[in-house]
Structures are given as C-alpha cells and as structure tokens.
Amino acid sequence: MNNNHIHHIDGTPAADLIPQLLAALPFVLGLFLYILAVFVSSRNHRPWPVYRTVCWIFGVFFAVAAVIGPLADRAHTDFSAHMFIHLFLGMLAPLLMTLALPMTLLLRTLSVPLARRLSRVLKSWISRMFTHPIMASFLNIGGLWLLYTTSLYSLMHESILIHLIVHFHVSLAGYLFTVSMIYFDPIPHRIPFLYRALVFVFALAGHGILSKYIYAHPPAGVSADQAEIGGMIMYYGGDAIDIILIFIFCWQWSKASRQREDVSEGNRQLVQQ
Predict the structure, then answer these.
(1) CA separation for the pair 98, 80 (Å, rounded)
(2) Residue 104: which residues within 8 A CB-CB, separation 6 or more?
(3) Cα–Cα distance, 99 to 89 (Å, whole number)
(4) Dmax of the chain from CA atoms?
(5) Taking Cα atoms as reference points, which of 59, 61, 55 lies closest to residue 93?
(6) Per-residue confidence (pLDDT) for residue 273, from 0 to 100
(7) How far apart are CA 8 and CA 159, in angstroms?
(8) pTM of this structure
C-alpha cells in the first residue's frame, strides 16, 4: 500500500538535524581544505583559476543543500524533493566538483614526497578499478536501481545509518561516474573515447529507463502521484545535467582528434622534408 510519505525513525527536529549535520560535514570540510589549498598553491605557483574555485564552491553548495536544510527536511515527506536531492547530490555537485580539478590542486599543494605517494595511489589497481567507466556506471546507475526497486528507499527513512550510507554512496558514485567519463584531473589509466561513449550511452539509458519505471511503479511508501512527479524530475532534470556532460565529453573528443591530426600532419611534413 502506498502512502503519501514515509515517516522517519524519529520525527523530532533534533533527531533529524543530527544525520543532516553528519552528512554535510564532509562537504564543509572539503570546502575548507580546497580554499586552504588554493591559498597555498597560489602562493607557491601560478594563481589558481578563479572559475575552478567557483565551481567547487557551487558544487559544495548544491551538495550541502541536498543533505541539510529545508529541502532535506521536505524529502522525508515529499518524493519530488527527494528527487531534487538526487539531482543535486548525485549529478550536479559531482559535475561541478570535477570541473574544479581537486586532484590537480592537491598535487600542486602537497610536498614532492607526498605528491609522489598520491600519484602512486592514483595509479594503483584500486583507483583503476573504481574509475573504470563500467565499474563507475555500475555503482552509480546500479545503486539507483537498487535504491528505488527494493525496500532500501523506505529503510533509509527509518534508519539514520542507512540514510547516511545511501547519501554517501549517491555522492561518491556520482563523482566516480563523472570523472570516469570526462578527464580533467590526472587519470593514469585513460580509456579510449569510443569505449567511454558506448558505456555512457548505456548508463544514460539505464537512468532514463529507471525514471520511467519509477513513474509506473512507485517505490514502497510513495504515492502514485508523487512517483509520477518524481519520475519526471529525474528524467528531465537528469537530461538537463547530462546535456552538459555530453557537451564536455564531445568537446574533449573533438579537441583530442584535432591534436592527433596536427601531430600526424607535422609528421608527414617532416617525412616530406
């Protein structure tokens, strides 16, 4: 039986505020460390681009808005608000944070020994596994299918721990998916554009099909009316963010193709000389 909302395990304001603060803490800490790194890096190297910092600030803003405040409060009783949280936390914030180049900034800020250690971590098999397009897509899209087609959605509103785990997974999986598709930060294990494009298409299809599935088959505890609105928000809102991601991906592919053509043309001229 569908209800208009799902009750939290404890509806008191204090009980709701604690998990919200815990969920927001990593992002607030990330903002502080990023700004600190910008000052250190700009002092020792070239000034860090302002637009990168702006991207990080807005990414943190959307992530924090998704886990604490009016939107997070409303999400307990309004499925459409929950879907905006999904868009902010799992798609828009990761995209903005990816454009902020956090790993590049960190490598510029750390000492040489620490930067080498971080580089080894980025080159490790663990990093290679989780930033592979197929694994990142499975964690991102597969996690959403698990959330909305099982009892996990209702459980996250009844358990603070599950609530935090779900939000952490949505954010991290969204970030891994974004960095696996568009390369801005150093990625030692680069996957060809065509391979990424094929995985990208299947991931987008999985996201779109899920939104239509939610529209027709509401998650446990969600009314049909709210499921229809939430499904449309997921479908059209997701498309709007995906268009930006697709544009960046195609721009990078075109740029790489022109660079290869320039290199080939230069080689031909050397041979003719």
Answers:
(1) 26
(2) 184, 185, 186
(3) 15
(4) 80
(5) 59
(6) 56
(7) 8
(8) 0.89
DSSP 156-222: HTT-HHHHHHHHHHHHHHHHHHHHHHS--S--SSPPPHHHHHHHHHHHHHHHHHHHHHHHHSPPTT-
Provide the angle, in degrees to the nearest 10, between the axes of the packed helices 193-216 and 160-181: 140
Average per-residue pLDDT for the chain: 89
Amino acid letter for position 33 = L
Predicted local distance difference test score (pLDDT) of residue 264? 58
Closest alpha carbon to 100 in 156, 62, 57? 57
Helices (H), 125-159: 125-130, 133-137, 143-149, 152-156
Token pair, residue 230, equals 């939430």
Unique residue bearing structure tokens 């600190």: 36
Question: From the DSSP assignment, how many helices (H) and strands (E) are in the chain?
Answer: 15, 0
* Tokens, residue 215: 């529209």
Task: Provide the 3-class DSSP secondary structure of residue 261.
Answer: helix
Give how far Cα 97 sits from Cα of 51, 107, 175, 199, 266, Å. 11, 16, 8, 22, 36
Per-residue pLDDT, averaged over 174-196, amounts to 93
Cα separation values, 129 from 97, 125, 204, 251, Å: 21, 6, 21, 25
